[in-house]
Amino acid sequence: MVKVASKGTVLNQEISMAQVARAQLDSITYTGAESEVYDCTTLDGAVGRAFSQTGYSSVGEVSISGFYDPVLASHTEIRDLIAAPAEQNWEVIFADTGTTTMSFAGAGITWENTVAMSDGLKFSATITVTGLPTYA
Amino acid sequence: MKCRLLFDMVAGPSAPDDICVVEDGKRFLKAETILDNPDAYKLVHGGHAESVDDECREKVKTMNQSTRGLMREIHARITGEMEEFQASLQEEAEESADMFEEETDEENEEPASES
């Protein structure tokens, strides 16, 4: 049993077939993965509601945030997916001793910037995952 | 549009197997590999590769020259820090395994018989 640190986790974006690390991130969050179920309770069933699998899974989205440098390719190559939408391959490398990777394809993206007096210039983006992520 | 890699990089899923080398179960694109891709100019601008054709060369000229090559430094720093951190974790894991082994050996040692 090991407590794996968040420090050292890397997000790669595939650029021209090569994986390139993205800089100045302060968070990577994967949410919304869910195996879908349907209510299969019947009138002649037991008291407890019954559910079964549809056979599909929601694959969720990956949200990232960090300190924004408007001219840094690390950020412009993410931001550019708004102007030129394209499916993009991504990879998260966790900071465990086995350097476990979560690879996924992103179909769409949202992009936001925040300017606040109490903080540095920040950005956040949410990548809509398409297909199941793979772990290796 | 074509570029030639200046150093080894981890291959993305869209890289065909015939240009990749597999090491420790991971696919790599070795230095000198020529990549033919509409985004090849981004690797050249980032400092990961050099242009092979005029289309790529001309595209890179239109980009912000003040940040040219910056991505290579950043990529090297991030991956370098990750590798250092992994190495320290591995070292810690080995040390604690050694300590556990020593403790187990001590516990298993039979007490010296009194004569």
Care to describe what's here?
The complex is a heterodimer of chains A (136) and B (115). Chain A has one helix and seven strands. Chain A has 136 residues and is mainly β. Chain A is elongated and about 65 Å long. The model of chain A has no long low-confidence stretch (mean pLDDT 95). Chain A has a single domain (10-135), classed as Factor Xa Inhibitor. Chain B folds into two domains: 1-68, no CATH class; 69-107. Chain B contains three helices and six strands, in the order βββββαβαα. Chain B is elongated, with a radius of gyration of 24 Å. Chain B has 115 residues and is an alpha+beta fold. The model of chain B has no long low-confidence stretch (mean pLDDT 88). In chain B, the strands form two sheets. Chain B has a three-stranded antiparallel sheet with strand order 5-1-6. A three-stranded antiparallel sheet of chain B has the order 2-4-3, with no helix packed on it. The longest helix of chain B is centred in the C-terminal third of the chain and has 39 residues, at 70-108. The A-B interface holds A 5, 7-8, 10, 12, 14-21, 23, 71-74, 77, 89, 91, 93, 95-97, 99, 103, 105, 136 and B 3, 5, 9-15, 19, 25, 29, 35, 37-40, 42-43, 45-46, 48-49, 64, 66-67, 70-71, 74-75, 78-79, 81-82, 85-86, 89-90, 93.
